[in-house]
Amino acid sequence: MEAKWRRATSRISNWHEGTEEPSAFPLCGRGFSAQLRTSWSNDNPGRRFFGCKNHGSLVHHACRYFSWFDPPMTPRARVVMVGLLKKIKTNEVQRRKERLCWVFILALCVVMIWFSKL
Question: Where are the transmembrane segments (predicted)?
Fold first, then answer.
């Protein structure tokens, strides 16, 4: 079954140079323009796809429309991307721990100052 397409309307977007912007969006099984989404799975990190606008909604039933927009990544690019994503996650966890430590130190200082004034 061939997908129907709707021309892209002007939208505010932050597309970077060198990436393609779709000139048309396919229509899902319910006749809505599919949304361009990004996969962050280990198999397809950063790969964009079209999906039903109700995908993941608990209220509206999605029609399960799915179509890749970007071509597949090479195996090497996939390994590099997954490695970079893991490093980012590790750094974010470390920063969160450091922030909690500083909040604890600050709270301890406030308590000590408060008790010293008694």
Answer: 99-116
Q: Which tokens belong to 70?
A: 């970007």
Q: Output the six-digit token pair for 113.
A: 């100052």
Q: What share of the chain is helix, strand, coil (3-state, %, to 5)?
A: 35, 15, 50
Q: Strand locations in 1-118, DSSP E?
A: 5-7, 24-26, 35-38, 48-51, 66-68
Residues 6+ apart with CB under 8 A from 99: none
Question: pTM value?
Answer: 0.59
Share of the chain above pLDDT 70, in %: 77
